[in-house]
Design a protein that fits this description.
The chain is mostly helical. It is built from seven helices and no strands. This is 50S ribosomal protein L27.
Length: 145
């Protein structure tokens, strides 16, 4: 079960990264080019929100598996003293939750704006920040192998 959830979590992350990249560039280009906000832009923002929240749910399930929780057997001191354990048990989960919060705030704020330029600005800022946060805390050494 653990391997299956980890596999899904790892490969769903590609979709999340792709959608965050598309949504961020969509917001930047829409803002810079002063484009009209359309249904397609709304769908991109919404789909990015949905896939990122699904990834969060998969990540929570993965985090709460017995195999993962066994990593805490040495206590918090051991987890914090080991860079690999700290990344997997503390940094990655917290930063991904922060990224999801940024995506959710950006999506909510953009819906309240009445004109196109502020909508694109909210999406560019919050989705772009979320993209950077995600990129900083991906366990690249394990992910690219």
């Amino acid at each position: 079960m653990y391997d299956t959830i980890q596999f899904i979590h790892s490969y769903w992350a590609y979709l999340v990264l792709f959608m965050l990249l598309i949504a961020s560039f969509n917001g930047i280009i829409g803002f810079a080019a002063n484009k009209e906000y359309s249904a397609t832009n709304f769908r991109i923002a919404l789909f990015t929100l949905i896939v990122s929240h699904i990834q969060l749910l998969i990540g929570i399930v993965l985090y709460l598996t017995p195999q993962n929780l066994a990593r805490f057997d040495g206590g918090m001191g051991e987890a914090m003293s080991s860079p690999a354990l700290r990344l997997y048990l503390i940094e990655h989960p917290l930063m991904m939750i922060l990224a999801i919060v940024l995506i959710t705030i950006g999506y909510s704020k953009h819906k309240k704006k009445l004109t196109s330029r502020p909508k694109f600005k909210m999406l560019a800022i919050f989705y772009g920040l979320a993209f950077v946060v995600v990129l900083t805390r991906i366990p690249w050494s394990a992910w690219l192998n």
